[in-house]
Every structure is written in structure tokens, then in C-alpha cells.
Specification:
Layout (H helix, E strand, L loop, with lengths): L4 E6 L2 E8 L2 E4 L10 H16 L12 H11 L1 H5 L2 H18 L9 H11 L1 H20 L26 H10 L5 H12 L3 H4 L7 E2 L2 E5 L6 E5 L2 H8 L19 H14 L6 H14 L4 H8 L4 H7 L5 H10 L2
Antiparallel strand pairs: 1-2, 2-3, 4-5, 5-6
Length: 332
Amino acid sequence: MADYLRSRQRRGRWFHYYRRSGKEISLEVHGLPPHDPRVMAAYWAEHVRWEHRPPDAVTPKRHTFAWAVDLYLSGCNDWAEYAESTKKTRLAILRRYVAAQGDRLLSEITQKAIEIALYEKGGQAAVGEYKALKPVFEHMRRLHIIERNPMAGMELDRPKSKGFPTADAEDIAAFIAHWDIGTVERLVFDLALYTGAARVDLAAIGRHNMGSGLLTFDRQKTGVTCNVPLTAELRGVIARTPDIAPTFILNKYGKPYTPESLGNLFRDAAVAVGMKARLHGLRKAFCVYWAEQGKSTHQIAAMAGHLTLGEVERYTRAVDRQQIVRLIVEGA
């Protein structure tokens, strides 16, 4: 129920306000009848902001880009469901745009202006900003604050990329030769190789994920469940981790690594041996290994928690598979 909606007529014209804690805020949809969808959209947008923002938060001027971002971050269900890593990246982008264009009225923001800004940015940076900005305008459209998403139908030149390099046979051999069993660098390497876990998941998995011959965990990025076989090699690596610990990998203080610090640790370890691949490259190698073992694309997707089969197919192309299999099995 719209408990804080105050609508009243003056000389036959409707006026609508959000009244709460002694404050009365104009919803700026005057002239419309109380049950018009645009009135209710304006009400719920304001209500969500009050529910999820600190009471002393400064409200941006209505119908500006900063105001749109404020409503999006506090009230969009899609935003709430993003992985924390995605939120962190996109929030940084949105804050930069608010600082530069926050006072700009939504009605003044055209597709042409956005296209020019993204074209000037170029490359993957433009792709990232496109992904961050488009949902904000779409949220405004769904609230009936704007009639059309200015980014709808926008074509973006996406740079061709081979993605993160896959750890090849030479990478694996060099790392195994340099980092001895017992070092945290080797533990991170082995677990990443045998589980195929992404950085954010690798930092969180532990014995609590083991059961029925599988290491099972939900990917933080997508929520998709990974079911990794507890092979003899993986069991051997796990046996070298503390029996009672929240995660397999612990720092020198006996606490789990953050995903960022774990990624930095492995980056430095990889650089030390001249290895171009990073943790994501080991995730790709994991997929290649199981492809060589005769597992189907569907089975590998279930192990690695991929959303699409195309992701798995990209990972398992044109790699020295036989050598990778031999090094994974014999290198532990």
C-alpha cells in the first residue's frame, strides 16, 4: 500500500507528494489522477530511496542523471542480484559519470551524446561503460520516468579479444618446477588447476564443499552450481590443507584470502616463472583437461559452472591437450 502518498485536488487539478518524517516531497507528476501508473511509479521510486538510503542522504535534483543512478542503485532488482565484483566495477563507472554529468537532465541525454562518449573511450573500457549505463536508463523507462531508453538499439564496436591466455604445457611445467609443494603459491596453482574455480570462488571453497565424490560450490558470479570430481590428484592437494579451516587457502594470519589478494599473489608467482596465464588461464586448462579425457561439453559445463556451452567450446579449442593432460596427472 502507498502509505506515504499524499494526493489532493486544488481547483480541479491533482497534486501528489511523498510525506514522511515531517517532510513532504513533490513527486512532480501533478495533473495526473492518483491511480495513474506514472504517479505510482514516481511514488515507489521515492519510497525505495527512503527505505534503502540513510535518512541524511542528500537527494539529487529530480530528473537528473545523478537522481536516476540513485534510484537505480537503491531500487532495481537486477542491480541487487549482480555479483559483488560486478557491482564494484560498475559502481566505479557510475560514480565517474555522476561526478561529470550528474546534474544533466535525463531529457537532455540523447543516444548521439552517449555514442560519442563511448566512441571516444573506445576498447574494452567502452564496453564496460555501456554495460554499466544501459541498465540505469532501462530502469528509468520501466518506471515511466522516460519514454525510451536512449541506449536501446545502440550498436557498439566491440574490440576483438582472444580473452585470457590459457595456461599451456610450458606454463604448467615451469610453475611446477619453480614452486615446490608446501608453498602457498603451489597450493593456489594446484587447486585452481584441479577445480577450475574462478578467483572469487577459489578464495572461498573448503572442506565444507566436499561430499559424495564431488567438490560442489555455487559460482559467486552467476550462481551456477559447479560439480567438480574429487580425483585422486585433487584429494592429494586437499590433504595438504588444514583439517579445520574455513577455506583451503589461508594467509599467514590463518585467515582466508580476499579474491583480490589471491589474484595478486598468483600474478606475482606467475611473473616469477615467466608465465603469461593467470588464474583464469588455469580455469581454461581445467576445461581442456576434461575435454581430452573424453567428457562432453555438457559435462564440462556442469563441472565448471558455465552458463553456455559456447564458453566451454571456446576454452577447449586449439590447445596442446595431450601434454596438458600428462602434466596435470604426473606433475603433482
